[in-house]
Amino acid sequence: MSTPTKSERTRLTAEDWERGALDMIADEGVNALAIEALSKRLGVTKGSFYWHFRNRGALLEAALQRWEEHDEADVLAKIEPIADPRVRLRALFDFVARELPSHRIYAALLKALDHPSVLALMARVSTRRMEFLATAYRDAGLPAATAQHRARLTYAAYVGFMLINMTLGLPRLSHDEFDAYVDHVTETLVP
Amino acid sequence: MSTPTKSERTRLTAEDWERGALDMIADEGVNALAIEALSKRLGVTKGSFYWHFRNRGALLEAALQRWEEHDEADVLAKIEPIADPRVRLRALFDFVARELPSHRIYAALLKALDHPSVLALMARVSTRRMEFLATAYRDAGLPAATAQHRARLTYAAYVGFMLINMTLGLPRLSHDEFDAYVDHVTETLVP
DNA sequence: ACATTTCCATACGGTCGAGTATGGTTCTGC
DNA sequence: GCAGAACCATACTCGACCGTATGGAAATGT
């Protein structure tokens, strides 16, 4: 009855390191991602790490790519099929409320734009999400140019909100306040 | 005819170090602010630095405080007296277009929220600016609660725009595109 | 003019974390 | 049940900075 997926005392794989790296990023930020600290967290030593990866940058790159492909894509996958643009956009904002691991990582990455890899990733993600929003607004009947602007504004509001509420240590909105805010935003931004 | 303000071969003061630090932050980011590198930049050695400051943290703290008091305050000072809220908000957005040193630093700080001092500063600045916006919206006739939400939304859009356009390496908007965007934003957000 | 303060150079010690070298242990195929 | 591969531990080196110690040069008062 050996359960190899259980994290008891089994040997590690590259994927384990990547997941561990993402956990660590979510908890302590990108700059805190040190391989010796992560090794301790995983119950091994550096010797293990340097068998799986060439160096620290390779791990970060792999972890970010994993996040981009999995978590990031999941968000759009769950929202994209929603037909009504109003509901679709509303769903997008609602995602921010829940403290999904994906969003915790997003917020952590927002704090680490110093790093070139993180910067490049966020640039890709941002353009992708803005295009998604532009499509939604066109579906809602806005002319192309207006939809483009509104998409930019909406994404800016989104990322700005993430920054203000999750990244900065400002007093968090209560549940009711957040609902009222989201209502206000949808009324203001969604045609 | 000695011109002591000229940066030829004069001795340094604490203020010089603070300004130099801000320049360096604007150019290469907060994490690149190393005292030996800054010393070289200023044409002296570490020995000078440790006469003026206790350590690196003290310099960063002083530089940030300087920015907060001077550059930061200047922005509001120029905008606050504008009576018409529409024009006032418009002016605020217009400031983003110009590559003022103050904004370059703001963008650099946005990339370094990992650092506690930077985080605390940005939290202060954000609340201050949001309150400023809330006042503007109340002056424009919005009810208090709505004004609060709209202020949050506007500031989120502002900081998000800074992030997308200045911090991330995305293709910058042309002058015309920017104007069109600002028009769209003011029409959408300003009552 | 000379003493004192102010400012800077040089040289050193100390830390933190990345990366390497090398050998030991555990798995897997045959 | 052993050979080779996969995985990990231990013990280093090395570079980048921070911070300190100390003496010298430049300004400034008297």
Brief descriptors of the model:
homodimer, 191 residues, mainly alpha, 0% strand, elongated, disordered N terminus, DNA-binding
Structure summarized in a few sentences:
With 191 residues, chain A is mostly helical.
Structure description:
- The structure is a homodimer of 191-residue chains.
- The first copy, chain A, is mostly helical.
- Helices cover 73% and strands 0% of the residues of chain A.
- Chain A is built from nine helices and no strands.
- In chain A, helix 1 (14-28) crosses helix 4 and helix 6 packs across helix 8.
- The longest helix of chain A has 24 residues, at 56-79.
- Chain A is elongated and about 55 Å long.
- Mean pLDDT of chain A is 87; it is low at 1-8.
- Chain A binds chain B through residues 29-31, 110-114, 119-120, 122-123, 126-127, 145-146, 149-150, 152-153, 155-161, 163-164, 167-170, 180-181, 184-185, 188-189, and chain B through 29-31, 110-114, 119-120, 122-123, 126-127, 145-146, 149-150, 152-153, 155-161, 163-164, 167-170, 180-181, 184-185, 188-189.
- Chain A binds a DNA duplex (30 and 30 nucleotides) through helix 2 and helix 3.
